[in-house]
Amino acid sequence: MTVMKFWLRLRQNFWFIPVLFSAIALYGAYITVELDRTLTLQQKKIWFFRALLTDVDLAKIILSSLAVAIFTMITITFSSIMVVLTTYTSQYSPRTLQNFISDKITQRVLGVFVAGFIYILFILLFLNQAKPKSLLITPTFAVNVAVACLAFFVYFIHHVATWIQVNNLISQVTERTLSSIASHFETVLGKEMPPENADLSHIADLQSVVARDSGYIQYIDVAGLISIAARDDVMISMERSVGDFVTKGGQIFSYRRGSEKEIRIQEYLDLIVLGNERTTVQDIEFGLQQLVEIALRAVSPGINDPHTALNCINRIGTILTTLSGYSIVRPYHYDDNGQLRLILRFEHFSYYLYKSFYQIRHYASGDLSVMEGIITTLQMIAEAGSPDIKETIWDFSRYITDGIDPSELMDWDKYYLNKRLWNLAVTTGFESAYRPFE
């Protein structure tokens, strides 16, 4: 199992950080117990205030109360998490659940609570071995742990109240997708054309490799594939891209030998991470899908919140503007010697543009504010994005406006909609192709 595959699986497990923190708590409890056992009473009085030393009976009362208090905070925390998960599922999108579950703050707060509870339980067990007349310092450490848990509890309540707001969720999804774009295209973009010495005459004579499991492609280790392909003198052509679902036995990539070296196919498959759900590590389309689903829920008759849909559309525009700055159709990767080693599958910018808006166009065609918002966002993309996409933006705007029924528009509707279209035509340089609603 590769490091990235192991790390992705750990990120999807809610228990990882609580277990890690619990192990640290056990070690910390052992250290404090050893301090109480090895330090003499005189040393304790020198290093600690006299008021911080407690006898066994008082220590048991304090620790029992703290254990109950921390367990109560754990219960409330779990209840808060369930409220958030229910809200995300019903109001926003089931795909946004992993945003909250994988949130570092959520996992760390829960880890602190569980670790504090285990720490105090371990100390309570130690008290059974303590002498009745001895004075202890371990309850003082336990009180400090409880105070830290209380501080994290207050912060977590604030965190939940912030996260459950739809605008903050939309912002979080956008930032995560933008981060994915930045990290993804810094590592996976190759060349637009293969090297001059690359022989593609037998590209159809590749040998197919099938997936050993079913799932979504979450991550492709491009550098790793190029490295072992150079070692084995093979050329790899990916038949699937990140975000695609592959079934067991389905074709996942093909390869062509350059020599008679032995090839261990499993090494290549280990560099392609499959999982039960999509992630935003390399899957940019998944981030766009999350925003689209939030927008669709917002324009549904049961919710009827077009302003949230417009917020999603604006954020989608931000992502597409950033995406347009990359020449994303650059699939050819080669080694240090100029030999073609890997061909990835990339979609054109128009694909992401269509995937971002076609569902919103279909389900919100009767909401003029949403349609106007899409046209305004297209102008924003054309204005701030790459000049190469202006023709694509204009062609796509006609696709959007074709879904609007002119007979249902009033004069004021036509005026402002035509104004938006004219501004888009000027921005893209297609004034001659402008056709207003009449």
From TrEMBL:
User: This chain belongs to which protein, by name?
Assistant: Membrane protein
Provenance organism:
Desmospora profundinema
Where exactly are the transmembrane stretches of this chain?
12-33, 61-88, 109-130, 136-157
Q: Which UniProt keywords apply?
A: Membrane, Transmembrane, Transmembrane helix
Q: What InterPro entries does UniProt report for this protein, alphabetically?
A: DUF2254_membrane
